[in-house]
Amino acid sequence: MAAKTRAEKMEETRVKLIAAGRKAFAEKGYASASMDELTATAGLTRGALYHNFGDKLGLLGAVVDEIDSAMAQKAKDAGEAAGGGWNGLMAEGRTYIELALDPEIQRIVLRDGPAFLGDPSQWPSQNRCLQATIKTLNELAKNGAIKPVDIEALARLLNGVALNAALWVGTSEDPQDTLHKAIAAFECLASGVLVKPASE
Which residues fall under the DNA-binding region feature (predicted)? Predict the structure, then answer.
């Protein structure tokens, strides 16, 4: 069996640290998670964390990016299952909001993420979502399905509604009840851009 390359070892270390960070942040929250404990859990040193992520905040950024990217992928899969287009876009939004019911997502992405990493709309994962939404809206515009409006502005507002709905659900006293209200409002607001009402 061939020895692992330096790049492979570095990636393996990153994966271990992200997994350990994800577990620690989910169980204890970012502020209470100990760097010594999470690096020991991964069988690594604090130096490995500094080398790969700079500090604990850098690790949180990597963990949030991993989880938020997975959320976006699940939303994309739901959109494709719904047939793409407008129905797909709405399915993506609904799915992203529904994922806010997951306790790990609530704690890491929707509570600690904004508290320690700042405005979620500036996260790399959210920017990737924005580009995907712009692509879908451009296709809908070419087909005359939506009203003439600036596509980037529309994409930013639609994504912002879904993100803020997820933040509301994830930090609500009654997430399940809030979910239904949030999705209904998201769909109501989004439908205003259609040239004609979406078919059932």
Answer: 34-53
